[in-house]
Structure formats: C-alpha cells, structure tokens
Amino acid sequence: MQCEFLSIEEFKKTYEVSRTFYVGFLQAQNGSWFPFCISSSPEQSVLDTLCVSSQYAWLDEVIKPYVTRLPSVKNHLVHLVYREEIDNLVSMYGLEHIGFVTSEEQASCECGCGCH
Fold it and tell me: Tens digits of per-residue pLDDT, 26-79?
C-alpha cells in the first residue's frame, strides 16, 4: 500500500461532496471511537492526516497492524462515508491533510480507483 498526501483544499477541489470514501476508525479501551490518522511527516509527532481510500481492503490492510501494536486500541472498523462527512471530521479534529491510500498497482490511476 502507499499513501498520497493531499491538502484539504486540494481534496475538496478534486472530489465532489457526494463522492464516497472508506475511512478507518479505532476504538479505545474505554469504548470511544476516533478516526484513524497519521503524521504527514516523520519529523513531527502530530497526527494531522486523515487516511481515506476508494477500496475497503486497502485501508483495512493499513489499519489492522495498529490494532495489535497499540494496547490502548481494542477494535477497528472501516466505514464508507461521503466527502461531506470527511469535511466534518477534518474540521472536528483540526486535520491538515488527507492521506489517500492506494495499492502500488493502482498508483498510476489519478483517482485511486484503478480505472487507468
């Protein structure tokens, strides 16, 4: 898998509000759910990037290892959401980037869906 980083503005310009994407969520030991985010740069420790994908399996493959490595996480799910809901998550969590997860074989596709 690979992750293409887009600014929030670039993501909004590229994809319509009605477009759907898969977004991962992690469940903390206390039962609360939060979106799966990563850091856009190895030099910083801030989680500023929401990971999304056009394919369920791709995002699930990226998230699963974190569930076993993070003792504070007890479960995960990958949910299909509209871009408008992604906008809400970005705003709520103060995120700066979208990490578009694709497979290496589909990397040449501009939209990440494998349409070539």
Answer: 999 999 999 999 999 988 889 999 999 999 999 999 999 988 899 999 999 999
Three-state SS for the chain is CEEEEEEHHHHHHHCCCCCEEEEEEEEECCCCEEECEECCCCCCCCCCEEEEECCHHHHHHHHHHHHHHCCCEEEEEEEEEEHHHHHHHHHHHCCCEEEEEECHHHCCCCCCCCCC
Task: Give the Cβ contact number of residue 93 at 10 Å.
Answer: 13
What is the rounded CA–CA span in Å between residue 51 and residue 100?
A: 6
Residues 6+ apart with CB under 8 A from 20: 80, 81, 82, 83
Q: What predicted TM-score, i.e. pTM, was given to this entire model?
A: 0.86
